[in-house]
Write a structure and sequence with these properties.
- With about 170 residues, this protein is mostly beta strands.
- It has 2 domains: about 35 residues, Ubiquitin Ligase Nedd4, Chain: W (Single Sheet); about 120 residues, Nucleoside Triphosphate Pyrophosphohydrolase, CATH 3.90.79.
- The protein is built from 3 helices and 10 strands; from the N terminus they run H-E-E-E-E-E-E-E-H-E-E-E-H.
- The strands form 3 sheets. A 4-stranded mixed beta sheet has the order 7-4-9-8, covered by helices on one side. A 3-stranded antiparallel beta sheet has the order 1-2-3, with no helix packed on it. A 3-stranded antiparallel beta sheet has the order 6-5-10, with no helix packed on it.
- Strand 5 and strand 6 form a beta hairpin.
- The protein is elongated, with a radius of gyration of 19 Å.
- The mean pLDDT is about 95.
Protein backbone atom coordinates (compact mmCIF):
# COMPACT_ATOMS: atom_id res chain seq x y z
CA UNK A 1 0.00 0.00 0.00
CA UNK A 2 1.61 3.25 -1.16
CA UNK A 3 0.63 5.15 2.00
CA UNK A 4 2.89 2.91 4.10
CA UNK A 5 5.87 3.64 1.81
CA UNK A 6 5.34 7.41 1.55
CA UNK A 7 8.22 9.57 2.75
CA UNK A 8 6.91 13.05 1.99
CA UNK A 9 3.68 14.91 2.67
CA UNK A 10 1.33 14.96 -0.33
CA UNK A 11 0.21 18.50 0.64
CA UNK A 12 3.40 20.44 1.39
CA UNK A 13 6.28 18.08 0.54
CA UNK A 14 7.87 18.07 4.00
CA UNK A 15 9.08 14.78 5.49
CA UNK A 16 6.70 12.40 7.22
CA UNK A 17 7.45 11.22 10.76
CA UNK A 18 5.87 8.53 12.90
CA UNK A 19 3.64 9.95 15.63
CA UNK A 20 0.90 8.73 17.93
CA UNK A 21 -2.41 9.97 16.51
CA UNK A 22 -5.75 8.75 17.87
CA UNK A 23 -4.03 5.96 19.83
CA UNK A 24 -2.28 4.59 16.73
CA UNK A 25 1.15 5.09 15.26
CA UNK A 26 0.61 7.02 12.02
CA UNK A 27 2.65 9.06 9.58
CA UNK A 28 2.32 12.79 10.21
CA UNK A 29 3.84 15.66 8.27
CA UNK A 30 6.73 17.38 10.04
CA UNK A 31 5.76 20.66 8.34
CA UNK A 32 1.96 21.06 8.21
CA UNK A 33 0.88 18.24 10.62
CA UNK A 34 -1.19 16.47 7.92
CA UNK A 35 -1.91 12.88 8.98
CA UNK A 36 -1.66 10.17 6.34
CA UNK A 37 -4.33 7.51 6.92
CA UNK A 38 -3.69 4.24 5.07
CA UNK A 39 -7.17 3.21 3.96
CA UNK A 40 -8.33 0.01 2.29
CA UNK A 41 -9.28 0.06 -1.37
CA UNK A 42 -12.93 0.08 -2.47
CA UNK A 43 -13.96 -2.70 -4.83
CA UNK A 44 -17.10 -4.46 -6.07
CA UNK A 45 -17.90 -8.00 -7.14
CA UNK A 46 -20.87 -9.41 -9.04
CA UNK A 47 -22.52 -12.72 -8.25
CA UNK A 48 -24.28 -13.25 -11.58
CA UNK A 49 -26.80 -16.08 -11.55
CA UNK A 50 -28.56 -17.31 -14.68
CA UNK A 51 -32.05 -18.82 -14.87
CA UNK A 52 -30.57 -22.26 -14.08
CA UNK A 53 -28.92 -20.91 -10.87
CA UNK A 54 -25.44 -21.20 -12.33
CA UNK A 55 -22.87 -18.61 -11.28
CA UNK A 56 -20.61 -16.73 -13.69
CA UNK A 57 -16.87 -17.01 -12.99
CA UNK A 58 -13.73 -15.85 -14.76
CA UNK A 59 -10.30 -17.48 -14.94
CA UNK A 60 -7.87 -14.71 -14.02
CA UNK A 61 -5.13 -13.73 -16.46
CA UNK A 62 -3.30 -11.48 -14.00
CA UNK A 63 -1.90 -11.73 -10.50
CA UNK A 64 -2.91 -12.22 -7.84
CA UNK A 65 -4.44 -15.66 -8.39
CA UNK A 66 -3.57 -15.83 -12.10
CA UNK A 67 -5.04 -19.01 -13.59
CA UNK A 68 -7.62 -19.40 -10.84
CA UNK A 69 -11.36 -18.87 -11.06
CA UNK A 70 -13.01 -15.90 -9.36
CA UNK A 71 -16.11 -13.76 -9.40
CA UNK A 72 -15.99 -10.80 -11.79
CA UNK A 73 -14.69 -7.99 -9.60
CA UNK A 74 -12.46 -4.97 -9.51
CA UNK A 75 -11.53 -1.67 -7.96
CA UNK A 76 -14.00 1.18 -7.88
CA UNK A 77 -13.17 4.22 -9.99
CA UNK A 78 -13.28 7.57 -8.21
CA UNK A 79 -16.31 8.71 -10.27
CA UNK A 80 -18.52 5.61 -9.99
CA UNK A 81 -20.73 4.11 -7.34
CA UNK A 82 -20.21 0.50 -6.18
CA UNK A 83 -23.12 -0.87 -8.26
CA UNK A 84 -21.70 0.67 -11.42
CA UNK A 85 -18.31 -0.84 -10.58
CA UNK A 86 -19.79 -4.34 -10.32
CA UNK A 87 -21.69 -3.98 -13.61
CA UNK A 88 -18.65 -2.56 -15.42
CA UNK A 89 -16.38 -5.34 -14.18
CA UNK A 90 -18.91 -8.04 -15.13
CA UNK A 91 -19.12 -6.68 -18.67
CA UNK A 92 -15.36 -6.05 -19.07
CA UNK A 93 -14.43 -9.52 -17.82
CA UNK A 94 -17.24 -11.62 -19.35
CA UNK A 95 -19.12 -9.73 -22.07
CA UNK A 96 -22.33 -10.22 -20.06
CA UNK A 97 -24.65 -7.29 -19.36
CA UNK A 98 -26.17 -7.59 -15.91
CA UNK A 99 -28.54 -5.81 -13.60
CA UNK A 100 -28.06 -5.52 -9.84
CA UNK A 101 -30.85 -7.16 -7.87
CA UNK A 102 -29.54 -6.55 -4.35
CA UNK A 103 -26.52 -6.04 -2.15
CA UNK A 104 -25.44 -9.49 -0.93
CA UNK A 105 -22.76 -8.39 1.52
CA UNK A 106 -19.95 -5.98 2.30
CA UNK A 107 -16.82 -7.98 2.99
CA UNK A 108 -13.41 -6.94 4.24
CA UNK A 109 -10.52 -8.66 2.45
CA UNK A 110 -7.38 -8.08 4.54
CA UNK A 111 -5.19 -10.64 2.76
CA UNK A 112 -5.16 -9.37 -0.84
CA UNK A 113 -1.44 -9.04 -1.61
CA UNK A 114 -1.97 -5.69 -3.36
CA UNK A 115 -3.72 -4.01 -0.42
CA UNK A 116 -6.65 -4.64 1.91
CA UNK A 117 -10.07 -3.91 0.39
CA UNK A 118 -13.68 -3.36 1.30
CA UNK A 119 -15.69 -5.23 -1.34
CA UNK A 120 -19.36 -4.63 -2.07
CA UNK A 121 -20.80 -7.92 -3.34
CA UNK A 122 -23.96 -7.65 -5.45
CA UNK A 123 -26.41 -10.33 -6.56
CA UNK A 124 -27.05 -9.77 -10.26
CA UNK A 125 -29.08 -11.20 -13.11
CA UNK A 126 -28.28 -11.41 -16.81
CA UNK A 127 -29.97 -8.88 -19.11
CA UNK A 128 -27.90 -9.37 -22.28
CA UNK A 129 -24.48 -9.68 -23.85
CA UNK A 130 -22.45 -12.55 -25.23
CA UNK A 131 -20.22 -14.65 -22.97
CA UNK A 132 -16.51 -14.17 -23.71
CA UNK A 133 -13.39 -13.56 -21.66
CA UNK A 134 -12.10 -10.00 -21.37
CA UNK A 135 -8.53 -8.75 -21.48
CA UNK A 136 -7.80 -9.65 -17.85
CA UNK A 137 -9.37 -13.12 -18.03
CA UNK A 138 -8.40 -16.23 -19.97
CA UNK A 139 -11.87 -17.75 -19.73
CA UNK A 140 -15.39 -17.03 -18.52
CA UNK A 141 -17.89 -19.78 -17.77
CA UNK A 142 -21.06 -20.75 -15.92
CA UNK A 143 -20.84 -23.20 -13.01
CA UNK A 144 -23.54 -24.93 -11.00
CA UNK A 145 -23.39 -23.97 -7.33
CA UNK A 146 -22.82 -27.65 -6.50
CA UNK A 147 -20.11 -28.03 -9.16
CA UNK A 148 -17.77 -25.11 -8.50
CA UNK A 149 -14.13 -25.41 -9.59
CA UNK A 150 -11.65 -26.31 -6.87
CA UNK A 151 -9.18 -23.58 -7.84
CA UNK A 152 -11.07 -20.51 -6.66
CA UNK A 153 -9.07 -17.40 -5.79
CA UNK A 154 -9.71 -14.67 -3.23
CA UNK A 155 -11.48 -17.06 -0.82
CA UNK A 156 -14.58 -16.56 -3.04
CA UNK A 157 -16.08 -19.89 -2.01
CA UNK A 158 -15.70 -19.41 1.72
CA UNK A 159 -16.70 -15.75 1.85
CA UNK A 160 -19.44 -15.68 -0.78
CA UNK A 161 -20.35 -18.72 -2.91
CA UNK A 162 -20.81 -21.22 -0.08
CA UNK A 163 -23.37 -18.84 1.46
CA UNK A 164 -25.65 -18.72 -1.59
CA UNK A 165 -28.92 -20.66 -1.26
CA UNK A 166 -28.93 -23.87 -3.28
CA UNK A 167 -31.85 -24.92 -5.46
Amino acid sequence: MWQLRAKYCPLCGAGLVLAMVEDRERQRCSGCAFVLYPNPACASAGVVLDDRRRVLLVRRRIQPYAGQWALPAGYQEVDEDPRATALREIYEETGIRAEVESLFDMIYVPDDPRRPANVAVFLCRVVGGVLNSGSDATDAAWFGLDALPQDLGFRNAELILDRLPRG
